[in-house]
Amino acid sequence: MYPTQMPSAPPTYDEVISGPQVNPPYAPYVNQPYSTQATSGTVVALPLGPNPARIKCPNCHADIRTSIDSQPSCAAHLCCLLLLLIGCCPLSSLPYCMDSLKNVRHSCPNCRIVLGSYQP
Ligand SMILES: [Zn+2]
């Protein structure tokens, strides 16, 4: 025996094709704001030269003369290596004595914060 209620006919091809158009949810383009936050840490970028500078410390707000800590730069190591390679062994330590080949780091003598660095 047939059931009294026939199931509805499947949708035709046209009905399927032109059916309700459901657009996928459009993800709005989120423009990531450029981070302008200062990098965390103790380094405060200030234009500083190779010599101690008299500035106002941004951390402890004291009028200070920066204390400097110089270290040989990569250029000094390269010059030393070059002098060794060309056979000038007695002069190979000369680049480490040259101020122009040193990185200088300025810090506050009060609070010890690193205020910046100078790289020749
Ligand atoms: Zn300070």
Automatic annotation (TrEMBL):
It comes from the Eukaryota. GO terms for molecular function: zinc ion binding. Residues 37-120 form the LITAF domain. It comes from Parthenolecanium corni. Keywords: Membrane, Metal-binding, Zinc. InterPro entries: LITAF (IPR006629), LITAF_fam (IPR037519). It is a peripheral membrane protein. It is found in: Endosome membrane; Late endosome membrane; Lysosome membrane. This is LITAF domain-containing protein. Belongs to the CDIP1/LITAF family. Its main location: membrane.
